[in-house]
Specification:
It is a single chain. With about 110 residues, the protein is mainly α. It contains five helices and no strands. The longest helix has 23 residues.
């Protein structure tokens, strides 16, 4: 393959020579509807990832599930922590010996 671009028989040299000889039209405005087509192609989601497509829906579904879980468990929460009624939060030992987190933290010592 000939890589000498200065050669007048090289395809690139022939293409640029033909482009220089092409007539110049005075109308350089974009055709009617070009901006609409560009905007429509920009909104096309074929190239978007799966995460981009469903991220907003996933946030909405997660929010609905969180609200539903609070609504379903409202009686247990309103009755008091761990089902004990009439006890203030300060009076409950949250790190009881049966708590899994306290057991794991005790293993680290």
């Amino acid at each position: 393959m000939n890589h000498d671009i200065t050669n007048p028989r090289h395809p690139w040299a022939r293409l640029t020579q033909a482009a220089r000889q092409a007539p110049v039209d005075g109308d350089t405005a974009a055709p009617f509807g070009f901006a609409t087509r560009v905007a429509a192609l920009a909104r096309d989601l074929r190239g978007a990832s799966l995460l981009d497509r469903f991220a907003l829906r996933a946030v909405g579904i997660a929010s609905i599930l969180a609200i539903l879980s609070v609504a379903v468990n409202y009686q247990a929460v309103s009755a008091g922590i761990f089902g004990i009624s009439g006890v203030a939060l300060e009076d409950i030992d949250l790190l009881s010996p049966d708590d899994a987190v306290s057991i794991v933290l005790d293993l680290g010592d």
